[in-house]
Specification:
- The longest helix has 25 residues, at 3-27.
- This protein has a domain at 3-52.
- The two termini are 22 Å apart.
- By secondary structure, the chain is mostly helical.
- It is 64% helix and 0% strand.
Length: 73
């Protein structure tokens, strides 16, 4: 798995976890938990934008087409 995909997967997981964490922090009136959820939301939203500006010159090009498809039929 390349670095961009790993970072975007982490961002997706952070976004999925952010809303329940914010909800728990709000329900139990816990500011540290609420701020943790807000930080996860912010980081999950910024990471995919940051990956657009990464250096992709070392990425291997992948072949495209039905003959190169590795998925099972």
């Amino acid at each position: 798995m390349d670095k961009k995909l790993k970072i975007e997967t982490i961002a997706f997981v952070l976004l999925l976890l952010a809303f329940p964490i914010i909800s728990v922090g709000t329900t139990h009136n816990s500011k540290p938990v609420w701020w943790t959820g807000m930080f996860a939301l912010l980081l999950g939203g910024v990471l995919p934008v940051w990956t657009r500006y990464m250096d992709h010159s070392t990425d291997k090009p992948t072949d495209m087409g039905m003959e190169f498809d590795d998925r099972t039929s």
